[in-house]
Design goal:
Blueprint (H helix, E strand, L loop, with lengths): L1 H4 L7 H10 L1 E5 L4 E3 L7 E15 L5 E7 L6 H8 L7 E14 H10 L1 H27 L2 H16 L3 E2 L3 H8 L3 H13 L3 E4 L2 E4 L6
Antiparallel strand pairs: 1-5, 2-5, 3-4, 3-5, 6-8, 7-8
Length: 211
């Protein structure tokens, strides 16, 4: 497990061991919230297994999916907020049952100073998340909802490594920042066109999605 947890760090065994020694391992079920908006940030999550979705909510309660976190990754927004003693600007929810290592912010700051490799890891995360946020902006500005829905289904299929996606219409609507009835109508059309097969809180991809 330890090798899998820190496989994406690509740093020295010494740093890997330091991170494990100074982190607290917690287990979460799908649907659990590990971080709420406006909450203080005392540690950063390092995903050991499972998938986390990071969401932004407006004052009216509308949500939009920003990005996913998978094994070996951390939340760059939590990291930056913790370092600058700021509160969280996002909510992080468990998509699939997860094991998460929580590294205290004071240790994060120490490791940044002592291990250049750890800083490089953070920069890589920042670059990846920045590109994903650009994709979100591009999709909202230039793509129709049906295209965005297909992209989301493709992403979920890749994350779960399965053509069968366990998700509700309401969750898809929340992540796309649209109405549930819109998602249900589009999914029904996709089913009629042979793209998907719909079940109870389950969608099976019948074709390879290229968007």
């Amino acid at each position: 497990m330890e090798e899998q947890v820190l496989a994406e760090f690509k740093v020295s065994p010494d740093l890997k061991q330091k991170i494990l020694e100074n982190s607290i391992l917690k287990h979460f079920k799908a649907g659990d919230v590990i971080l709420n908006e406006n909450a203080s940030i005392g540690s950063i999550p390092i995903i050991g297994s499972g998938t986390i979705r990071v969401i932004r909510t407006d004052e009216e309660g509308k949500e939009i999916l920003l990005y996913y976190l998978k094994a070996g990754e951390s939340c760059i927004m939590s990291l930056l907020g913790g370092i600058h003693n700021d509160t969280s600007k996002v909510r992080a929810e468990v998509e699939e049952d997860a094991e998460i290592y929580f590294l205290p912010i004071n240790k994060v700051i120490l490791f940044i100073k002592e291990y250049p490799q750890f800083l490089e890891y953070i920069f890589r995360l920042y670059h990846k998340r920045f590109e994903e946020l650009l994709e979100v902006i591009n999709a909202i500005a230039f793509k129709k909802v049906d295209e965005r829905l297909l992209l989301l289904l493709k992403k979920k299929s890749e994350l779960q490594n399965s053509k069968i996606i366990h998700v509700s219409h309401e969750q898809l609507a929340n992540e796309l920042a649209t109405a549930r009835v819109v998602v249900s109508r589009l999914l029904k059309q996709l089913e009629e066109d042979g793209w998907v097969e719909l079940g109870r809180n389950k969608i099976t991809l019948k074709k390879k999605i290229i968007v």
